[in-house]
Amino acid sequence: MSDRPSEITSRINEIQKTILKLGQDQLDFAQLIAVSKYSPVEEIVMAYESGQLDFGENRVPELKEKALYFLAHQYDQVRWHFIGHLQTNKVKDLLRVPNLYAIHSIDSIKLIEELLKRESELDGKKCKILLQYNTSKEDEKSGFESLEELHSAIELLSTNKGAFDFHGLMTMGSIRTNDVEKEARRCFKELIEVKKSIEEKFQFSHLKLSMGMSGDYEIALALGSNYIRIGTMIFK
Ligand SMILES: *Cc1c(COP(=O)(O)O)cnc(C)c1O
After folding, report:
1. Which among 213, 214, 219, 235 is the best mutation to test ligand 1's pocket, defined by most ligand atoms within 8 Å of the CB?
2. Which of 67, 92, 214, 224 is the most exposed place for a label (fewest CB within 10 A)?
3. What CA–CA distance (Å, rounded) separates 95 from 233?
4. Residue 212 belongs to what H/E stretch?
5. Residue 59 near ligand 1, beta carbon < 6 Å
6. CA 12 / ligand 1 centre spacing (Å)
7. How confident is the model at residue 25 (pLDDT cuts 50, 70, 90)?
8. Looking at ligand 1, which atom is closest to the CA of residue 214?
């Protein structure tokens, strides 16, 4: 039990080494988001104290509780990433979360409209927005399903600049397949193509890619992912 902090730290170090080996796009190394949704706040603090600053959560009430704990203890370097399916009635609470850095899982126009409406909840802070694209076409996965919808979402976001900064695209690899690696590669490559087409159409440069989890992050890194989101491998 007493070795828990060093166990978490060594897993994070291992992933950081893989990032140095595989994970550089033209500009920068990928960022590790430690997905802490399975973990009590004490374990997140262990990771934070070893230098991990980016954490991902997928439920607003849990994120809020953990973020308030961090705030109360003045762990103020933390950057919270929201990665779960977001309901419109939770937007207000999410935007009030201290040290909220990015939302990776925006998946509908309706949600963007709600964000814009609630912008003042950010209280002068900025928030990065990534749009989730459903590359696996699995029903239980959220995300925009067509380029047309994605284009409308981007138009809405970029004509309403303000607190929200359109930062990039997120996807998840397929789970229901007998060749996980091949399917992950296909999903990630599709996201890369979508990113390129958007950069061209809207004259953006260097949109970010959020892709890769415990089971497929090495594939994502090799393809140039900017954010890998890893839970199980660090905290289980
Ligand atoms: C849970 C989750 C992860 C982390 O998955 P692991 O397989 O535990 O690494 C990454 N992204 C999203 C969107 C998640 O919900």
Report:
1. 213
2. 92
3. 28
4. none
5. no
6. 15
7. low
8. 9
